[in-house]
Amino acid sequence: MFEDSLIESGGKLKTSRGWTSIVSFILQVMIVGVMILIPLIFTEALPKGTTMFMLVAPPPPPPPPPPAAAPVKVVKQIQTDIVNGELRTPTKIPNKVKIIKEDEAPPPVMASAGVVGGVPGGVPGGSMGGVMGSILSATPTVAPKIATPQRVRVSSGVSTGMLVRKVPPSYPPLARQARIQGTVILQATISKEGSIENLQLISGHPMLAPAAIEAVKQWKYKPYLLNGEPVEVETQVQVNFTLAGG
After folding, report:
1. Distance (Å, whole) CA 71 – CA 27
2. Where are the beta strands (DSSP E) in the chain?
3. Could you tell me the pTM of the whole model?
4. Model confidence over 56-90: pLDDT tens digits?
5. Using the 8-state DSSP alphabet, how is residue 75 labeled?
6. 185-216, pLDDT tens digit by residue?
7. In the chain, how many H helices and how many E strands?
8. How far is Cα 36 from Cα 29, in angstroms, rounded to an integer?
9. Is residue 191 within 8 Å of residue 222, measured between CB atoms?
10. In the chain, what are the domains?
């Protein structure tokens, strides 16, 4: 019986010690956890420090060197005896008289050797067979010849003054019966010899134009001269047809 009590008490002691260890371990863990959490929860703020910066301007650049002094021009006054363009007598005799030495004239240029067939005393560049004492003349300049045009245009008044033979036109009978009157204008070319060439009708009645062309073909003009040369002339010719009592 005593042994049974010992065994039971021993079992109780082992059981109470196990729970005590567990509770003790849990409490220690909780204490350690609280000790770790307290600094994390209640953190102390670090003191705010103020840092001051000073901005210092850079030093100014060194001043530029002073400008070089301008060279002083020394004006030397030349004493002269000419006053207002007139030579005056000096008031005193200078102690030292300067002698002005002029440069010697260059020696004369010797003429080049003569040419075969030349004469003594000739002029360089002269022509063979020249006359002693003659003067070389410059090469005559030839004026450029102005080109003369082959054909010019003149007014009817100028061409009328050149007319030397005028053949009157014959009045067409049908135009006379119909009492047709008027002026026929023709474009004509006068040759260098003064004859009529290339007649063309410009205006006029068709019944009067053939008679006017036939008459003008027989007209004769003086040759028109330009720069002394005869040239062809383009002009207009007017032929009037008028009936008596019309």
Report:
1. 105
2. 82-83, 86-87, 151-153, 163-165, 182-190, 196-203, 220-221, 224-226, 229-241
3. 0.41
4. 778 888 888 888 877 777 666 656 666 666 666 66
5. -
6. 999 999 989 899 889 999 999 999 999 999 99
7. 4, 9
8. 10
9. no
10. 156-241 (3.30.2420.10)
